[in-house]
Every structure is written in C-alpha cells, then in structure tokens.
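WARN no homologs supplied; continuing
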Amino acid sequence: MSVFKTAFPLPRGLAGYMALAFSLLSIILTFVIVEVVEHKATHHVEETIGRGLAEVALQTSDKLDRGMFERYREVALLARRSELGDASRSIAARRAMLDDVLNSYRYYGWIGLAGLDGKVKVAAKGLLEGQDVSARPWFGRALEGRHVGDVHEALLLAKLLQQEGGEPMRFVDVAFPYHGPDGRVNGVLAAHLSWAWARDVEESIIAPLEQSRQVEAMIVSANGVVLLGPSDLQGKRLPTSLLAMADPAHPTWRQETWPGGTRYLTGLSRSRGYDDYPGLGWTVLVRQKVSTALLPIELLRQYALASGIGLALLFSIAGAFVARMITRPLKRLARSARTLQDGSARIPVIEGGASSYEEVRELADSLNHLVQDLIRRSGELELLNATLERRVGERTNELAAALAQVQANEQRIHTIIDTAQDAFIGVDLDGRIVDWNTQARAMFGWSRSEAIGKPVALTVPERYRFSVEKSLARFAETGELGLLGQRVERIVSDRNGNEIPVELTLGLVASGTRPFFSIFLHDISLRKKVERMKDEFIATASHELRTPLTSMRVSLSLLAQGTVATLEPEVQELVDIAHRHCERLVRLVNDMLDVQKIEAGGLQLDKRREAVLPLVQEAIAAMRGFGRERHIALECECPGGCADVSAELDHDRLLQVLTNLLSNAIKFSPPDSAVVVRIERLPQVLRISVIDQGSGIPDSFRDRIFQRFAQAGSAGGSGLGLSICKGIVEEHGGSLWFTSVEGKGTSFHVDLPAGVADPAPAAARADGEPA
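OK structure emitted
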C-alpha cells in the first residue's frame, strides 16, 4: 500500500477526490459504451455481411443452374430432331448439323452421335468418329434416363482439343437417346460442356467483390470436392461440417474455422436445378475473412476510445473546477468550527452569497444546535454520573450479599446430597457424569475423581448399555424421555461387574446455563431378597396346600353330588357351602402358583399354530352358562375374513386368558346387555378384543389394574386374574391393554404377533432394563 501511495499519490481534499471521481467515471463510461457498441455493431455487421455472402452464393448457384438448363434443353431438343437419326442422310450432312451446334456456343467441347453398339457414328469436326464409348458413364446413364453427369477431366479428347491455360480440360456431360424415323432408339446424342463456362459465371458475379471486399467463391460437388475455387483448395475434399446446411432449400451463412485455422464468414447455397433440369447437387460457398469483414468495427472502436479519453480529460478539468466551488464554503465552515476549540459556545453564522449555499447554512445551524445540546447533556451526565456511582455502590453491596447467600445455599445442597442415604449421580445431556456423592462411591466403588467425566452407561450391565445410549440420543432429538419424574426399578453394576437392583428416580434440572439429569438410586437388594423369600414361601405353601385341598375337593364333590349317600337338606347345604369355598381355595392356590411361575420365568408354553376362531368359540361356550345366570349375551365377531386366521399359541393358556376376561366382563356388565369378542387382523398383529357395556374402569384404579391382588368394587375374586393374563400374553410375545370410558364400557385387547417367534421372557424387561 505504501508503494502504491508513493507511485500514485492520493488527493488530500474533497476537491481532489471529486476531480478523480469525475475522471474515473468518464473513463469507465467510455469503456462501457465502447464495449456495448462494439458488441452490438459486431453482431449487426456479421449478420449483414453473412446475409450478403449467402445472397451472392444464391445468385451464383442460380446462374449455374440456369446456364446448365439452357444447355440441357438445347441438347434435349437436338436429340428430338429426326434427321439426326435418319441413316439415309449422309454422314457429312449430319456432321454439318453438329458443327453448327458446336459453333453456336463456345463452351461446347464435343458433340456426337453414338449407336447402340457404343461406337461414335458421326461427331462435330469428325472428332472420335469410330471410337467405342460404350464404357463412358454418360452413355449408360442416357439409356437409363439420367441425362447429365458431374464434372470430370477429359480422357479421349485431352489429346485432340487445344487446352486453355495450365488447368486440365474438364467437362460436364449432357446426353439423350435419339430416335430413328420409325421412333425406335438408335443411339445416344452426347455433348461435352467445357467447365470453363463456370469460371465465366464466377468472374461475372464474384470478381467485382474479390477486389473491393476480398471475397472468395467456391463451387463444390455433391461429394464435397472443390470443382472451382482458390488454387490451394481446388480438387480437395472439404470437411462435411463446412457444407452442412440447416435448411438445404434456402441459402444460409455462418462463421467457421477453415483448414489452416483462419476464421471466415461463409455464405452457402445448394444447387436445386431449374425447370426440368434436375441439378447436380453443387454447393456454392462464398467466404470472407472475419478480420477483413470486421475491420470497420475495429476502426470504430479505436475512434471511440480516443474520443473517450479526450472527454475524460475534459471532465477531469471541469470536475476540479466544480469541486473547488463546492468545497470553498465547507472550508469556511471548518474554519468557523475551529472557534469551538477556543471556548466559543457557537459557530459564527455563515452569510449567503456566491461563496455559500443552503446546505452549508443548514449544516452550520445544525452544528450550533448540536453544540448547545451537548452542553446541556454534559451537565445532565455529570449529575447522572454522581447518582450512578451511588447506585453502583448499593447494587455492589446487594450482589455481594446475594452471592454469599447463593454460595451458602450451594454448600448446603452439596452437604445434603453428600450426606443423603441414597446414591446421587448428576449426568449432562451427553451422558457424562458431572456429579457423584459419597453414597454413589459406596454403591459403585469409584471415587468422585474417577467417576466425573465417565459415561453413565458404565454404571449399568453391558447388556443394557446400548439401550441407555439410545434413550439419550432420542432425548437429544425429541426432548422426550419416558422415565422423567417416575420411580422405577432397574439393575446397575459396580466397578467389579456385580449387579445391584435399585429403585431409580430420574429428573431434569433445567436451571442454569447447562441442564443436567439428576439420578437418585436406592439399593433394594434386601427388599428383593425378602420378595424372593416370600415368593418361595408362597410357592412352597401353595404346593403343600394343593395336595390336601385336592383330596378335600374330590371328597366334598362326591358328597355334594350325592354319590356317597343321600344327605339331609341341612347337611347338603353345609356340604355345598364347603365345596364352593374349597373350589375357591383351589383356584386361589393355582393362581398363586401361576404368578410365581411367571415372575420366576418358569412358565412353560406348549405353542402350536392353530386357528384362533375355534379357540374363541370354545371360551364363549365355557362361559355361556355363567352369562345366562346374569342375563348376559355372549357374541363373537370376525369381520374382514378373519375366520381362517391362525397364530402360534398355547391353547390352554390362551383359553385361560379369554375365560378370565369374559368372566370379568360378565361380572361388570348390566343385565340384558351383551359382551362381544372381536377378532381382527391388523398390519402387524392379531387382535382379540373383549368388549362389555359396563360402567367402565375408574380413573383412580387404572394405573394398578394389572397389579397383583388389585380389585375394583366388590365383585369378589383373588385380584390375580388380570396379572396372570398379562404375564401369559407377554410370554406369547404380545401385549394386553385396555380402553375404557366411565359409564359406557371397557374393551380389553389381546395383541398377538401373526407369526410368533419365541420372544425374550417378559421378566427380562422387568428386572431393570432401562427404557
């Protein structure tokens, strides 16, 4: 930058910058105008010259076609003259007729008659008479109906005719069959038209342009060979791309790079024949170098640049003069503003006149108002500063007191957490441990310094770590975590891998800049041990009670049925009461054994694939008598072709579930109503629904409806039925759930996989696996 300033010193004042801006804008505007004009003019000139070249090509091709048409028609008329084919006329007479034709047009090189045997019978000036021409292309083409041939070099006539200049002698053949007096074809009349006539056509049209505009013309055959043109291209084959035309029926032009690398504006016109002359497919090309064609544009550009530079200089001088006029009042205003440094309270008023203008006067007035406002505000700021200093002191004392209180509260919270009976773990949203109390150290074996920063997943058994990471990722995406605010049982592991059952409470602390999860864990190993002892006691007691109860039930059943002896009515009533209570005890013992098996993971299922509809019908038949006693109708619905649906299931256990659900539905249904069992095949599951029209499940009971010994109302029973049903359904890999509306009824739904594979035991989800 310093080098630039030294080489090109920048202006020091507004006048210099304005003069520089005028100069730069003038130069930029000149270049923009030159580029725009050059672009538009170049396009227009190319279009104009290109169309002109295409028009010249069209005129040349049209003149060629018309000239060939004249010769074509002349030879055709000559072939129709009967005296030429009249053998009775002398050779000399017929030769004289051909001599007249040959002399009528100086470009006829040879005219003669050849018989059907291919030998020349008579020819102008006697040339080639007696020669065999049957192998010449024009002879065969004339007999086939094609009467004109393309340009070719002379073979037989090259030695007989005098050549003009250094070019080889070339001809265009025109031949027609001629007839005798009897109307039959006697041979072929042929005329060789010298190609020199095409050079005359070129000179008549192109020569004037070649001198003034440096234009070149070419006549190209149908196969791309240059028949007439510049000496370096004549006889050579041109690339197909140079001869391609968008519409062969109309002349066109384009800019092309020719062999050798020179770009030309090229006009093209394709020969189309004239009247009955079919044409030979010649293409006329007229080209002009792009540099020559666009020379006026380059001159115009130079003139425009020179004019622009001159205008830039004039604008620079004018800009400097105008800038001095504009800045003179501003300088006076600056000198007046310096008086403020001397203690003046205002800027002297700048009078009007030639050296000032309205904007400067308004600026002076604005500066005066600003100075007065600054003086007033300076006084106010001094007063406000004194007030702020007092308030800052007060606020500082208040903040110090608040900080001391916060620190005391923080110390109190740390003390409470550290002395709590439960283990406490703080976990950030990334799953890293950020807090760890003394009880956590006692439970897991890691010190606080060892635990801080480690993933919380290390505190659970390895089989559950993926589930913990997945739950954290789901919370990061959706902000939802099902365990928040709940007290649940889970399994954790210490640093030695020992598993510990705990009761866990999870909360989200969102205050502060970094939210985190607070986790309290209570060791329930002792409670679990007591529960296992209780379950073992229940199982043992149930097994021990089953044998005597079975004997008592059989004995009482025999007495109640009168099999042993006929009892007195009073005795019969007592026996019936004892029999009913014995049956109830047996059911209670069986239910307790089922609960113990489900919790211990020892419930064995004998699953087989079978149709579901017969199983449902069997359950309805088993409960129909109970429903009849309470005036409840039992119905089965199987919409949508579910009659043939099947699943892998344990027949007896699922029958136990359905009869239990039907029994509950009958108990809680009003008389003269119906209980419906509906089978549905859904996209992922097979659903069996038991629907009643009872009073519904109270809201206060819904959360514990599947717990053991839970009962609603006074319907009787052990309170184990729904808990057992849920365990059996989950062992099938399904789920048992309900929907209920108070006063309108309840629906229990059994969802089974349509193709059940043995699922993981339900106990695996209840022993502490994280959600």
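DSSP finds 21 helices and 22 strands in the chain.
OK
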